[in-house]
Batch of 3 targets.
Target 1
Amino acid sequence: MQLLVNGKTLERPEGDTLAGLLVALGADAGRVAVLVNDEVVPQARRAAAALHAGDRVEVLTFAGGG
Amino acid sequence: MDFTPEEQQRYARQLALPEIGTAGQAKLRAGRVLVIGAGGLGSPAALYLAAAGVGTLGLMDGDAVDLSNLQRQILHATADVGRRKVESAAAKLRALNPQTELRLFPERFTAANAAARLADFNFVVDATDNFASKFLIADACHAAGRPYAHAGILRFHGQVMTVLPGKTACYRCVFEQQPPETGASPQGPLGVVPGVLGTLQAAEAIKFLLGLGQLLTDRLLTFDALTLRFREVPVKRQPHCRLCGDPDHARP
Ligand SMILES: [Zn+2]
């Protein structure tokens, strides 16, 4: 299935979860905020969050510098 | 609303903009902006705010200038190493625009001083360099109802977002809680990254004071210097947000 991840299309297997996607992206789960179709998905809910074709996923890295 | 001939010349290009004019310039002169952090983000933000004629500029920073700051903190010069950042910054800002009244706070922004500092200003620029301060500013600005521009940077990229507390999505709507410290020594950022984002924070402060245009609210703007791409991510208030959400709303 095709997802739109940070504005780019990405092919992922059917049944993929948000947690699975983050692993595939190499994201540090504790240091990213994730939105699926504009809704924030807290870290505790990402393993159970199934992704569907066409989902828009935004992975935002915590940035603490100044 | 009277401007001296010198002010008329200094601000001639802004006064010539119909969207600003003398009425707008008077709003800037009446404006009081607190810049928290006189480093990479705070340098361009404070310089542009003073240059534009913001009447009162607060500068808050407990640190002294270090040689390793100069690669990105353009308010400070080699001769300032060891000097308090707020004093080093004030010297440059006074030289740029002596008409801007500076209020210097050589201290960190803390839970203890937050309310007193925010009370005297009508817009805040979060130019801090650590998560504890960024979350504290989010919480304190929410409690005080003080609008502010957030920015954060990392290596070659960063993000910026304006918050009107109680009206638009807050920092915690997106970044729910402070991440654990990594303990790793900081890498970067490339100096131009806070340069770009601090400049955008100044633009937001100026637009807020003027009541002009659309603020960067309910959207987070990300900037990546390596691809030279900006992306706008829509964000909305989360009913379960621990800061601005409905306290009766069940946590997921
Ligand atoms: Zn919120």
Note: The domain at 31-234 of chain B is CATH 3.40.50.720 (Rossmann fold).
Target 2
Amino acid sequence: MAVRALWDSTIGKKTVMAVTGLMMVAFLFLHMLGNLKIFFGATDFNAYAAWLRTIGEPFLHFTWYLWIQRVVLAVALVLHIVSAWQLSRRDRRARPVKYAHGLRPQASFATHTMRWGGVIIAVFLIWHLLDLTVGAVNPNFVPGKPYQAVVADFQVWWINIVYIIGVVMVGLHINHGFWSAAQTLGVNRPVRDVAIRATGTTVALLITLGFLTVPIGVMTGLVH
Amino acid sequence: MNLTLRIWRQPGPDAGGSMVTYQVSDVSPDMSFLEVLDVLNERLIRAGEQPVAFDHDCREGICGSCAMVINGRPHGPEQTTTTCQLHLRSFRDGDVIDVEPWRARPFPVIKDLVVDRSAFDRIISSGGYITSPTGSAPEAHSILVPKPVADLAFENATCIGCGACVAACPNGSAMLFTAAKVAHLNSLPQGQPERESRVLSMVATMDAEGFGGCTNTGECAAACPKGIPLSSIANLNREYLHALRAGRA
Ligand code: SF4
Ligand code: FES
């Protein structure tokens, strides 16, 4: 009953978006921290990647944890996108006629780019998975040797640009999304507002900068 | 002052409409915006034309009738000011001012600047009240209400149901309005028995009326003539999720 009511209401769908969004932010934060291991060299980084496959052993079989996490994140992503899609359609229907004198004084760039930015992030994500998880579009991809694949990747100028744009879009998305999630889940209150906004911006900045250090590291020759 | 007004004219609900340009000259900076429309309408009537239809009643900022979007902002450029309390001193001589009706599917245009806001009435009638008979104003000490709670309830009770929040929202969302009513009634002792059913059914009606969802952009609170804060929407979400958990859905 409650689950049905949740999914059928606008507030409910926003709640789904908030929870799944926060799950993905948590994952991105850990992903970013893991990426930084690249600065310790190929052996460390590849060993870290191999270790990810052994999490939970011996209780879990080899790579099971990774697959569980992948399934959970995929479900979260699908729910996030479906909710966003359905809510956006409803929102557009609710405002069929534009103002002749259009103004949106409050909206920041991040707020403006939530929908299209989200689509760009989705496209970026598909490419990123094909590039560095599956390796389908990466000629230098060898399973078990992610360090070499990453370093070869960021030698190519356009891959750097695609990656940087993707990561910056993710940062902007989180900057609005984190506070928005706090608002949707009802945990925001006037006395916490500034702290929650600041936390969201800090998390967005840390994730963006953390991810950007890898291509910058390769470009500057720090990682080779 | 001389002004150029570009006003949305639409003869009826199903007719097409367009922006029509009017010049008004020799108006005083101390006139309210509605008085300028009165001056224009007298002229139009004398010329045998249809006057501009617009809603108005109290003209003192408490009834919420005077709905119009002025230069892209509901109730015009001044913060926490209704159109009837907006004066020409907020504009400059020679300004071109665009005047449009609220734009949202649940608020269809009836004529010119007048829109049908009965969707708000249906939200209220689905839970924006308390069922126990309250009679005349009770003795203030008979039911104790802590000061912060009274302040919160009062702040939200100032909502005049004008619909500027919907008009300002890029999604045509009625969250701020609904949030104000829920915060007002759900925070007071008299509102407790229906605390969960109220929020569930008001939100269900809000959704059924076709209002959009909240994307937390904050245009509503910036446009609200009564300064209902965005935190009321967080409170509405909290009340809603609490009611769902309480199993009242
Ligand atoms: S919340 Fe503000 S803008 Fe919305 S109806 Fe109430 S008074 Fe008007
Ligand atoms: S006419 Fe009543 S609030 Fe403006």
Note: Residues B 56-59, 61-66, 82-84 surround FE2/S2 (inorganic) cluster (ligand 2) (CB under 6 Å).
Target 3
Amino acid sequence: MHVLASFEWSVIWDSQGALWGGFKHTMKAGVVGIVLAYLVGLVLGALRAHRIPILNQLAASYVELIRNTPILVQIFFLYYGLPVLGIHLDVFTVAWLSITIWGGAFMTENFRAGFEAVPQRLSEAGYALGFTRLQEFLYVTLPIGGRIALPSTINSAISVIKNTSLLLLIGYPELTYVANNIQSNTFRTFEMFTALAVYYLAIVWTLSALIRFLERRLALPEAF
Amino acid sequence: MNAQAAAPEAEPVVRAEDVRKSFGENVVLDGIDLSVSMGETLVVIGPSGSGKSTLLRCINLLEPIDSGRIWLEGEEITAKGVKVAQIRQRIGIVFQQFNLFPHLKAIDNVTLAARRVRHMSRREADARALELLSRVGLQEKAKQHPHQLSGGQQQRVAIARALMMEPRVVLFDEVTSALDPELVGEVLVVLRDLAETGMTMVVVTHEMQFAREVGDRLLFMDDGRIVEEGIPSDVLDRPKQERTKRFLRRSLQMAHSLEELSITDQGEVE
Ligand SMILES: Nc1ncnc2c1ncn2[C@@H]1O[C@H](COP(=O)(O)OP(=O)(O)OP(=O)(O)O)[C@@H](O)[C@H]1O
Ligand SMILES: [Mg+2]
């Protein structure tokens, strides 16, 4: 109880500017990462679902590799490993790139599953109307499979956002990095991490509300 | 039977010659020859597994054939290098399961291909689709999604969707088999009206009364072959082949036993 009694609101108040700056960095890497992860997932998910030779196997290997290694190892590989090969990426590039690569693997599987769940008879209805393979994908498989995949993709997007906190380990000034710095200077650990949790909860709850909104707007009937 | 049916020597809309198709060891089409003239309603009957659906799917190039040839309005569509998607625009098909796009309203189901493939403007496509929907009695359902419609209504939307592409021939694959009995009539009426406007149609069905009244010609298929063909009433009343007789006797028996089961007792069972 004495912790709550001694809760120092002024620490949070004084750090608002710094935390807001951290929030903006989190969102910058997070939004770029999520948008690109969706693109990677859509394209690779389509290649996987349509079993496009070679590209399908390459995409499958990428997914296997990413899903079976810790994200921190991937971040370190990009930040500390690539310079050994002569490739130097700045910290922001590594920030969005690493979560794009990580999120893209999960998005690929989300979209693959969604596209594969589209009943064959609906694709055939498209072909029967004279659609080419590309048109069938764009106007039948994508809208229907995309809706099926939607909830799982937003869950992956939430994971991407939460994982941006690992970027503190390469010195990217996102929320966790900022809060951690402040608490080590002020020793107001409890206050800082409470404020941090509130930020993350706000982000995740906003995304969750978005899921429910989209699900209501776009939901397909149970049986089709 | 159909006034608009063209003279027999005119170019058939669909012609097939010695079409063969197997799935693995299973020979499903065993040398099919057929021709459908302009404006004709060709009815196809036959036992389950005889290859009726496969025949329609091959005509529509949804299923590649192993050998033989198929022509649409004199153009060989089984030749190498044909533009399959373009051919399919000229052949409509309506499926047993309706297969409407669940994310689109009825009217958008009808207009999708016209807008995306034909690049028709939305305004023009909507106007045309409303015309077609009213033709199948569904103008006021245009804004509904498929799951808000009954099976019979969904099937009528599917028919409108096929007609939207102005096909030269429409293939119907047991379009009433998935429907509750009380909804079969509304779909058959649409088919009958379509036949009367001179549409060229191939209709796979189990509805013998429909075959008799609307069909210009009837094929009986068994085991991947056309066993017998002729004027529907001739084949149905005086089948020549033993296999046709057996099939018709069995479907009649079925009809009778179902009649006996029905709760409204109409008295005399023929
Ligand atoms: N894609 C497929 N792969 C393997 N076998 C198939 C395939 N499609 C059809 N068949 C087989 O081909 C045969 C003919 O099937 P088809 O669906 O053409 O018959 P049908 O006359 O339409 O029967 P029904 O009246 O039950 O609809 C069946 O033995 C079926 O199992
Ligand atoms: Mg069939």
Note: The mean pLDDT of chain A is 92.
